[in-house]
């Protein structure tokens, strides 16, 4: 047999895009999807950056545990519904209609978030959950459909698409987060609403209108980032960088649209299926919204104590897990603590539903897998194994919006001080605008100034720039003094990871391309192993920063940034590669369902992340707000959990690396699908 007969040559550039117009070697439709997803992610991450802080500091006055529970239920359900959205798109609607329906629901949810009342808050979350279920898996599937089988540019295309996700994710904390924390929560959520509407319009409007929306949206957002930001050179530079990236992306997208944009044939309704069954989807969606409202709230508006309903009482859980003696090892105590938290969370409505649906969904995928012929079956097995490892990855990675977010708020020094208290000032009473720099120092009547005191003062003085009397004592020597504009809001750091992706995304894409040209490109399982190891090193940086905190329990910002950098490198090894791999390994009749399974596994990750974050809970809620301990009391709690995550992630990476030779063989990348 000749070489030409035994090896299927890769498609040429002329055949690569099946007649589609191209820009920079990729279909022009990729850039339309890039911008639509960018605005959707702007809305999602803008809301996510504020959510935990809003529940604790806003009108709900939740403590850490309740805030983590709602956050975990929300993020888990957000990633559970794409399984069903993918299934319905494959069977009834088609990807294009599913994306439009999802966008409308999400825009309504973001708008409702601007109204401060308990039931509207949870209804808004349920609208976001259902809308994301239709939007998220199907826009990713349309990206995959732009490339023919065997295309070597698919990974690069998904990396570019992933950069669109992260441009939106970088913008949202800089605008929604800063505006929400500084001027009012409802303003931040309002910006998220506008972002979702723009994303939807980009997807559905005619070409000329879409070009105008892209240009106008990019210009207004860039100006907003240049106007609304903390008053220090670092954040100014970051905002300028993201604004330039946004304008550049908008320009490229407009050029792509002038060459044709997204083909009307992509994402259409499945062959042989008409609109007669659409009403069933709409009715099911209408029924799902109140059900998900109760699940995401944990029935808390209906309980006597205002907390999530727990189906298994604490007494039963404690009897099941057993008591740990005082002299027991720290490992035994840790195992029991994890078991108690796990059973508590799983016994809450969202956890129970997620567990049942997960068993059914992955049972369905396993049954379908073993109905396939040998090569497709082996590919599906690899896909399921990789889904498991990505579930572990995101269970750790998604601490960013919960425990790492609160760690940043409470234990990371975020102030660029303008001066410090000197010995010559002892005995004076000065006027200062209180910031994070005063936390941990003695205040009036001998009390220690806490985060709760700072939050209360800011709630009492809505306008920026207020000052209080502060009598200088000897213990204050060395204390920093700064204005609030010099304090970086904690939510802003939600943009660090996506900004690193913008800086490194093309670098990694070029790296994989160069390695592939030299026949040295690591297989997807090896990339997954690298991703887990780098994630572990990132949490190791958080742990090391906590161990080396100063006397006030404050951690240098450099350790936070290093940790995010390492985690981002891990994410770039795993997430865009994983999305591409799912579309390559899945049979065509299951591709959206498998993509939904990928996001369903991410839902489990989110719930596991909520369980892990419960181990860092340090405050209790109340009518007047949550009481937060001093940083010296919380830094070791966060550091201990982050250290455990670091070790576990690196061991998981090692396990994936050991399995990679077998997984690579079963991918059958040399065979034409």
Annotation keywords:
single chain; mainly alpha; two-stranded antiparallel sheet; 22 helices; 2% strand; disordered N terminus
Write structural notes for this entry.
The protein has 673 residues and is mainly alpha-helical. The protein has helices at residues 3-6, 13-16, 29-57, 64-93, 95-112, 118-145, 154-183, 185-204, 207-227, 233-258, 278-297, 314-321, 330-346, 349-369, 374-397, 403-411, 451-460, 496-517, 524-547, 557-585, 591-614, 631-667, and strands spanning 22-23, 26-27, 419-420, 429-432, 468-471, 480-481. The protein is built from 22 helices and 6 strands. Helix 3 (29-57) packs antiparallel against helix 10. 54% of the residues are buried. The model is unreliable at 1-17 (pLDDT under 50).
Annotate the secondary structure layout.
Elements lengths: L2 H4 L6 H4 L5 E2 L2 E2 L1 H29 L6 H30 L1 H18 L5 H28 L8 H30 L1 H20 L2 H21 L5 H26 L19 H20 L16 H8 L8 H17 L2 H21 L4 H24 L5 H9 L7 E2 L8 E4 L18 H10 L7 E4 L8 E2 L14 H22 L6 H24 L9 H29 L5 H24 L16 H37 L6
Helix pairs in contact: 3-4, 3-6, 3-7, 3-8, 3-10, 4-5, 4-6, 4-11, 4-14, 4-21, 5-6, 5-8, 6-11, 6-21, 7-8, 7-10, 7-18, 7-20, 8-9, 9-10, 12-13, 13-21, 14-21, 15-19, 15-20, 15-21, 15-22, 16-22, 18-20, 19-20, 19-22, 20-21
What's the overall average pLDDT, rounded? Answer: 82
In N-to-C order, the SSE pattern is HHEEHHHHHHHHHHHHHHEEHEEHHHHH
Choose one word for the global shape.
globular
Query: What's the total number of strands?
Result: 6
List the total number of helices.
Answer: 22
Q: Fraction of residues in helices?
A: 55-70%
Can you list the strand order of the major beta sheet? 1-2
Describe the sheet with the most strands. 2 strands, antiparallel
Class from secondary-structure proportions: mainly alpha
Which segments are poorly predicted (pLDDT under 50) over 5 or more consecutive residues? 1-17
Instruction: Calculate the terminal CA-CA distance, rounded to whole Å.
Output: 20 Å
